[in-house]
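Listing S7. Sequence submitted for prediction.
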Amino acid sequence: MVLSNSNLKTSLLVVFGFLVMLVLPLDKLFEPFSLTEFQQDRLGDAWKNIFIMIYGYLLIKTYGYTKIFRLLNFRHRHAFLVIISLYFLLLGPIEYALRDFNFTNIQTVNVLILLFSMITVGFSEELIFRGFVLPKLNEEAPSKQSLVVPLVYSLLLFGVLHFLNLLRPDSYFHWFFHR
């Protein structure tokens, strides 16, 4: 099995572009409005993800991966997989409950902003990693190479990207080890 992939550099550049968009200070756009810091941060995150979705869509369209990704004719065949999303949706409140967070003062607008921000994350990641990176890595794989190597590379890039979240000062990992 060949472990090299000529499209790994392109995929790394695309992921680097993803990371650059993640550090854009878009929350600053909301400073003129009378929003809380939480609202500014989450709306900034949502807009970053919207830009990443546009970036991913343009990459998918430019490289002709729309059929692979089924971008234009999406049909969800396994509705039970929504349970996985619900599981992760429950993990957030559990994390805060472990931190003795006071849930009584939560505003409805904050919940809606948070949900919007959370939904945009999933779409942006799917467009970049499943819509572009995986098809790009698989595009020129040697004929003897199965999907395993491109899939492992894609998963490693995705994992490293999420590992960086542990370095954030607001992460559970950081809170757990620095209290």
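Caption to Listing S7: primary sequence and predicted structure tokens for the chain studied. Residues 8-177 form one domain. DSSP finds seven helices and no strands in the chain.
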